[in-house]
Amino acid sequence: MKKLATLFVLFVALASFKHGDHGYHIGNEAADFKLKNIDGKMVSLADMKDAKGYIVVFTCNHCPFSKKYEDRIIALDKKYKKQGYPVVAINSNDPVVSPEDSYDKMIERAKQKKFSFPYLYDESQTIAKTYGATRTPHVFVLQKNGSVNNVKYIGAIDDNSDDAKAVTAKYVEQAVDALVAGKEVATTTTKAIGCTIKWKAAQ
Predict the structure, then answer these.
(1) pTM over 0.70
(2) Host domain of residue 173
């Protein structure tokens, strides 16, 4: 019985590790990627040569939380792209599990909302696993240091997913403002609030 209990604990630990707990921590070097954008072109962070960093947002089409944050994500890109920190959105959901998150639906959603940033399809879910993304939306703010991108913030966009007007702490804005000013980020991690990423059934 004791052996079975130990095996169960090990199984739960491995399952958690598999879906995000092994991802990045503050200060880690973030891997670049090359993913398909909604215009059919392959996009990587390195393509944005003038960038000083990136606001990488794991999001999707169907999640109510993602929908509530879409206008705020657009606003982040509008505000910070010109300061060298563009938004890069990534959808890692399995369309078999969540048909609304298919590549074709991504194209429709981006057109409908007039996305001003790349909306990339992480079809293999490799990037979500590598980064440790577990929710939509889930943000990773990166700072570019030469050819290296270091993780400076991980978590939520702000402290109120329901009402943008009731927000009291704008975590991503605070992080990027600090980086632009050459300062340390005060709040480096928060809990991402949103829908779980829809993993492929075989994984």
Answers:
(1) yes
(2) 24-196
